[in-house]
TrEMBL record:
The protein's name: Tetraspanin
Keyword field contains Transcription regulation: no
TM helices/strands, residue ranges: 6-31, 43-65, 71-95, 237-258
Classification lineage: Eukaryota, Viridiplantae, Streptophyta, Embryophyta, Tracheophyta
BP GO terms, sorted: auxin-activated signaling pathway
């Protein structure tokens, strides 16, 4: 096997390894809290990673056994997949740019959440379609997101201990009323209405019934967006590293492919004479 083909095979093997984080990112999305209730591009990421794996494997096979046609197809397909990955990253950074988190109040360890802080696309995805939100709401109510918080009430002997806790966006937005409502704390998921509640629609939407809580609140929708945003921002780190590495190895692979073709032409010319 020619030296250039050896180099190409090694480069394609490294590209094969770089595709693994993309697949792992899609699997990670599926395993995170709340992800089962709002499936935002987790399978497209996993599918894109799987395609990258298959294409890189095809490139390795083509280089190892010197199949120039397979190598050419690999370069074309890998270029298309890297372009899709770049487009996905640009889209992810654009729609997760804003944050709806804001300090709940002085002395609180958690944030409250509002829809206005997020991008229009994210707001429309979760809150724009009533039927979609009903499905998300039912899923959240059936999940253990708030149930686990309620079980932790034994650790909060005084209200101040709960106020100092660090809640996830879903717990803050869906499992308790917004701080602006001024409800009195009884337990993480049980609150007493004030005599004069704040003029906020979420305050009227709250209920101590475990099936109600704040699942109909705008803050719950914002908490879901906060969860999706956090997951995408973390996943983007792995995707950016994988994309940069893939582009680097792709450029080297293109150079090695050209060198392999040059070697073949030289060898044919030499034997022809």
């Amino acid at each position: 096997m020619a030296v250039a083909n050896n180099i190409t095979a090694c480069i394609n093997f490294l590209a094969l390894i770089c595709a693994i984080p993309v697949v792992a990112t899609g699997i990670w999305f599926a395993s995170k809290q709340g992800a089962e209730c709002a499936r935002l591009a987790r399978w497209p990421v996993a599918i894109l990673g799987a395609l990258l794996l298959l294409v890189a494997l095809a490139g390795f096979v083509g280089a190892y056994w010197n199949r120039q046609g397979l190598l050419a197809a690999y370069l074309f397909a890998m270029a298309a997949l890297i372009t899709l990955l770049l487009a996905l990253l640009v889209f992810a950074f654009a729609v997760t740019r804003g944050s709806g988190a804001y300090p709940a109040a002085a002395g609180r360890g958690y944030d409250d959440y509002r829809l206005e802080g997020y991008s229009a696309w994210l707001r429309d995805y979760v809150a724009g379609d009533g039927r979609r939100w009903e499905g998300i709401r039912a899923c959240l109510a059936a999940s253990d997101t708030c149930r686990k918080l309620a079980l932790e009430s034994v650790f909060f002997i005084a209200p101040e201990q709960f106020y100092q806790s660090h809640l996830t966006p879903l717990q803050s937005g869906c499992c308790k009323p917004p701080t602006v409502c001024g409800f009195a704390y009884v337990s993480p998921t049980v609150w007493v209405n004030p005599a004069n509640p704040a003029a906020d629609a979420d305050c009227a939407a709250w209920g101590n019934d475990p099936s109600q809580l704040c699942y109909e609140c705008s803050s719950c929708k914002a908490g879901m967006l906060g969860t999706l945003r956090e997951q995408w921002r973390r996943a983007n780190v792995a995707l950016v590293i994988a994309t940069v590495a893939l582009i680097f190895f792709y450029v080297i692979g293109c150079s090695a492919f050209k060198n392999a073709q040059t070697e073949d032409l030289f060898r044919r010319y030499k034997w022809g004479n």
